[in-house]
Request: fold
Amino acid sequence: MTHPDVLVLGGGIIGLACARELALRGLRVEVVERLPHGAEASLAAAGMLSPIGDVSEPEVHGPFLDACRASRDLWGSWVADLEGETGLSIDYDTSGSLLVALEEGDEAELDRVLSVARSLSERAEEIEISALRHWVPDVTPDVRRVLHLPDDHRVDNVQACAVLAQATQKLGVLIHYDSEVERVECRPEGTVLAHGRHWRKEARLLVLAAGAWSGLIPGLPPFPVRPVRGQMLLLGGVEWPWSGSVRRGLSYAVRRGATRLLVGSTLEEAGFDKHNTVEGVEALLAFARRLFPGMGNARLETVWAGLRPATPDGLPILGPLPDWPAVIATGHFRNGILLAPWTAREVARLAFEDGEDEIPEFSPKRFVLRPGAPSL
Ligand SMILES: Cc1cc2nc3c(=O)[nH]c(=O)nc-3n(C[C@H](O)[C@H](O)[C@H](O)COP(=O)(O)OP(=O)(O)OC[C@H]3O[C@@H](n4cnc5c(N)ncnc54)[C@H](O)[C@@H]3O)c2cc1C
Reply:
């Protein structure tokens, strides 16, 4: 039986992006995914590619924001490559975000985003409310100010994941769906062995990309990754000229295709429970009605919830796992769609450079080696 060079644990956007990047560099890669098809958070997301909208001042000069901006800048060519490799298309939009202020507190938030944008030389411009009304005819008359962030992009993440899976398979990567990894072991000969119910797979390198479940893989350290639930809803029959997103604070409405609008999202500590709740859906509808009072007749098409992989310090876990032939790529929390192309490059770089040059702020060592590290 032949074994791959790399076994990727998790078939979400992070695992697939890493698998493709490693295959492009000539490695034999296989992906194991617990679900019969698709992925978890990566399909639940809104697809905003928005590095600066809710970043706080102290984060402005850190590696996280640098990674988010670099990844945003990679998305356009990533989409073109994926489309070229598969002949399929991905709904990727570069018209930007509109940040609206309805109250005094919102205006302070707009000023904060403006100042962050200026300090980074990111484009941000106040636009006339009449321009907003042209783009978004349903918007409330209560809007006081609007900021346009033209460098924010958005993507249909469901399409992107499907096209990415095809592109990855075209490169010869085997994606094993319905294949839960039940245990992983580090072999004395320097390989990893993953055990499923009826199968075992050995590889020279493991990439852990199991999203919110990354701390639960027996044999691996219990990384302190926790699920943070986000509920979403999809409205149909929305025909605005605006094709980007509209945001107020942490809530947002994001176009999907020509006539649909995603509304999100809650941020809830509810364990691994992926249910929608009356309270959650009510909050999303209240946000949509407050911002777009004219949309009372829009069709409520569906609701869902997903689990963001969150870490104690809010930063991803990305780097080699000490004493293992493994690279960890998880904990992307609210920005895993945005960070996928950058993470894939970084994982490939670490895989080929023996992990010597990891970014310390993202290192797995901060949880597995530090005295008093959470959960260990
Ligand atoms: C409501 C919501 C809105 C969001 N909006 C955005 C957004 O607008 N922009 C943005 O950038 N990010 C957004 N995110 C965050 C983003 O979705 C995540 O950060 C990203 O999808 C994480 O990708 P992942 O591949 O690590 O995890 P996942 O997509 O969860 O994939 C991990 C995979 O690992 C598999 N797995 C787990 N355990 C095992 C096992 N033992 N064996 C085999 N397979 C296993 C799971 O089945 C899963 O498919 C949002 C998330 C949510 C929930």
About this structure: The chain has nine helices and 20 strands.
